[in-house]
Amino acid sequence: MNRPVLLVLALEQENHQHRLNPLADAVLYTGVGKVNAALALTRHLAACTEMPLVVNVGSAGSHCFTAGEVVNVTAFVQRDMDCTAMGVPLGQTPFESVKRLENGLAVEGLPSAACYTGDSFVTEAHPVFHLEVIDMESYALAKVCTAFDAPFLCLKFITDGADGEAAEDWSQAVVMSAHRLEDALKAALAHVFP
């Protein structure tokens, strides 16, 4: 795969001192949440003459992985899509057949997981889903990549346990995330572009 690399993050804070910039041809900050993420990436890809490898990196919570781990996300679920009153399974958009997107590129050497995306900060266990990785943007980014037929790589640094301490843990850990993501992204890109 030989194509430009677009690095996508929600916030500039997740790219401490722009440490990750040398690993990409362009960097896009989307803002927080699914709507902002979808809008920003759609605008960017619509203007591309060559479809890039879209690489989403950033912070995430987890009920399974330990804070400080980097996880390769290969599947994506919209955890706050709830039309169960219509008989639609939790996490599935009505009138769409796909509940779980599985378009994340796999990278050897990193644990893989599904990410549960939603527009809320998680502070306790979910009544239905086993929340391996939790964020606010990656499902939207994965869906846009599917629409544009763009390859998608997603690496998340686990900053917190998505519990009552999550907000405090995130602000302290996000600085460290760029350092750990830099190493993981170098290895991942060497895997994608051998």
UniProtKB/TrEMBL annotation:
Quote a single Gene Ontology cellular component term: cytosol
Write down the species. Fluviicoccus keumensis
- Gene3D superfamilies in alphabetical order: Nucleoside phosphorylase domain
What protein is this chain from? Adenosylhomocysteine nucleosidase
UniProt-listed GO biological process terms: L-methionine salvage from S-adenosylmethionine; nucleoside metabolic process
Matching SUPFAM superfamilies: Purine and uridine phosphorylases (SSF53167)
Superkingdom, natural source: Bacteria
The record ties this protein, via Pfam families, to: PNP_UDP_1
Enumerate the spans annotated as Nucleoside phosphorylase domain.
27-189
Q: Name one GO molecular function term.
A: adenosylhomocysteine nucleosidase activity
